[in-house]
Amino acid sequence: MDFDFGVITANWRFLADGVWITVLLALASGAASLVAGFILALLRLRGPRWLRPAIVFYIDSMRAIPVLVVLVWTFFALPIVANVTMSPFMAGLIGLTAHLAAYAAEIVRAGIESVRPGQTRAALALGMSHPQILRRIVLPQALVRMLPAFGSLLSVTIKDTAIASVIAVPELMRQSETVAGQSFQPIEVYTFAMLMYFLLLYPVTRGVDRFYRRVAHLGRS
Amino acid sequence: MTFDWSVVWQHRDALAAGTATTFLLTIATMAIAVPCGMIVAALRLYGVAPVRSLATAYVELFRNLPLILVVYWAFYVLPILTGLGLSALATGLAALSLNVTAYNAETFRAGINSIRRGQVEAALALGMSRTQALRRIVVPQALRRVLPVLASTWVSLFKDTSLVSVIAVSELAYVSMQVRAQTFRVLEMLTAMAVIYWLLGYPQAKLVDWIQRRYAVTE
Amino acid sequence: MNGDATERAKATGTKVIRYLDVVKRYGNFTALAGVSLDVHAGEVVCLIGPSGSGKSTLLRCTNGLETIDGGDIEFEGARLGRDERTLRAMRQRMGMVFQNFELFPHLTAEQNVAEGPRTVLRAAPAEAKRRAAAMLAKVGLADKAASYPSALSGGQQQRVAIARALAMEPDVMLFDEPTSALDPETIGEVLNVMKVLADEGMTMVVVTHEMSFARRVGDWVAVFDAGRIVEEGPPEQIFDRPATARTREFLSHLGWGG
What we know:
The complex is a heterotrimer of chains A (221), B (219) and C (258). Chain A has helices at 6-10, 12-46, 51-64, 67-82, 88-113, 117-125, 130-161, 172-183, 186-215. Chain A has 221 residues and is mainly alpha-helical. With 219 residues, chain B is mainly alpha-helical. In chain B, helix 2 (12-46) packs across helix 5. Chain C has 9 helices and 10 strands. In chain C, strands 6-7-8-3-9-10 form a 6-stranded mixed sheet, with helices on both faces. In chain C, strands 2-1-4-5 form a 4-stranded antiparallel sheet, covered by helices on one side. In chain C, helix 3 crosses helix 4 (125-138) and helix 5 (154-166) runs parallel beside helix 6 (184-199). At the A-B interface, helix 3, helix 4, helix 7, helix 8 and helix 9 of A face helix 3, helix 4, helix 7, helix 8 and helix 9 of B.
């Protein structure tokens, strides 16, 4: 067995572009789903009653459908229905955000609900209004409690960007496929890809772990 | 633009076969990954130092790789490494099993570690050996904590089987997209695919919710 | 500083436990700095002192839950087992009651009490059940045999824990702050059970903050401070005529008048 990692160096720019797209897609969909998730969770908690079943349905649906299916539908079917054209990256961004926002909403909800009711009671006793309580007492504590789950979600987001390769988003997985196909050296190329993803993901999980341990006491009541 | 939804019904046999394969993959993977996960967790908790490091490395590796990459890697590398000519289905099963075993190992390890030290001490104080304490006191309690997580892993696995479609395993996603390619009925087939997954996945997700409520640990 | 030997009423019995210059360190922190103490058969020895003074540590070293770094512990004339098997054999003859009860939540009260005889003594299930029922009746909880720990009050759980330890028919009972985690109303029911045991002649080592219990039921009291015993003697001496300033200071902090 003869390994020639020269194929990596020969195509490093092509592959580096893939890494860049991976990071970009992960950060963009991560941020968007975070915002969307917060909005959904707060709407579910404090919004109009009639909206709640719709939000719950949306969240449960995204938990039931694989990311691959969401991405493929967004890229191929949505343009037909909505009469728009979109780039693979855009479809990837929309699909990932839609899928992840559901999980983010659940994390936010669980975080808020995990703050002890005694905290709210104490704040009410001081004369605070409910919006004040949410903003100054509950959310700060809830945010700390949400950290590990969000770290985990970020990790999932990065991994899910690789699935966007099936709709031709030029992220690392796709670029690796191309190089592997052209060079007939799949072992070297995919091993390199594994290394890159590991280098991206491992610090995220470890970093979130460490950061959480430092601030965990802020969320304990 | 006309839509012809009858294509879905026409190809119901293929879709049913794909669904069956999806279930088969899920069940087979769990059947492998639960016992293997227990073994890896045990190695990680009680093995000698080099074994512990190896087990930890395995778990950390597969928890930090995208599954779709593992599928591709298994498809291209496994035949060369093992010298076996595995079918796409077997390769997909191998990739899924490697992945889920790592997650299960972490689940089991966390479950065992979550049992308070005092419980082990009380058992030892009665004169039990460590093995007895593990078997009779720690594991029964850990099982309760582990069950909801395993249920959740099951649902994730069910969805992840869609990823082996990239190596042409005839599970639901692959079959749906094949029919789409043959009939050019893009919207109909892709929507049908989503709906079928929804119909299968929604009750499973609800079941997991119920399990998590039922087995919630209050301490 | 040490009570007059003639005042030690129960010193005629054999020495069930001997602590000989026991040293225990956690990293840089010295939890026990050379503790020597004897426990005679039938004695109730109470260990009192401020938090962190080493009382609980000494107890946990007694049955090997913690290993000592210096000195020796003798149990029934033999050095505390270094290997698992000897240690386990010794543990079977010691009963321990924990501050947090540590009942096994997946077992009923009766199953908890029967667990020791069943798993460790390899008694037949019927025999284990019989013993469990007897012990539960002894602590006044026969009617709670089928209840799970989560359905019991703190005091009830602790009494079940005592029954669990008694079911092994130990030669000595070790109590690690048995009432510290209890509501004031339930402390009494646990202390009453402990008094019954003492009256029956059980050898007991009790780490406690319940001074009135130590005064009434104890035969010998050792006052701990910073990993050492600063004074030991009969309860009358320790509580009524403490010989050291440290003891007086500690007792006055607890509001123990006189």
